[in-house]
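Second attempt. The first submission of ATPase had a stray character pasted in from the spreadsheet, which I only caught after the job came back as garbage. Lesson logged: always re-copy from the clean sequence file. Corrected sequence (181 aa) follows.
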Amino acid sequence: MRKKSDNLVVISGCSGGGKSTLLAELARRGYATIEEPGRRIVAAEMSARGTALPWIDMEAFARLAVSVSLKDRAQAPERDWVFFDRSLIDAASALHHASGDGLLYQLKTEHRYNPLVFMTPPWPEIYVTDNERKHDLTVADAEYERLLRDYRALGYETIILAKSSTSERADTILQTIAGST
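This time the job returned cleanly.
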């Protein structure tokens, strides 16, 4: 029998690796999706002229991301599969990186997700910066390596998605999780 947390599927990985586009495809196919907390926080902070932005105060930004991620997880619909664009682990990893906060290590047993985590690798050909993503690919690469390490340290199986079409990536995810139940 599946645990409730097993229906919570994380898509993480490199900034600019196609996660949001992939989530949009899964939503188009009728699945519940949860948007990336970071983008929502950046939009709200910029609108309010706040400073909890990754390029101004990474620790404050990460603390907000932890809070938003906890709410997202708690409010996830009770559906067969719910797909998250990043997760509490991404936020805790960023917070640990920025401040040394130990929340990340508590997530080995608390606030679990499906044991399979899908990772979008660095993909220079599609990487772009914008008003909400100001860091370059070098920073995104380092973040990706940190997330791979942290997810694996917490006992998750990381599956690196091929640099293929959005439809093919969605098919891979759906086939993989269907085969794991």
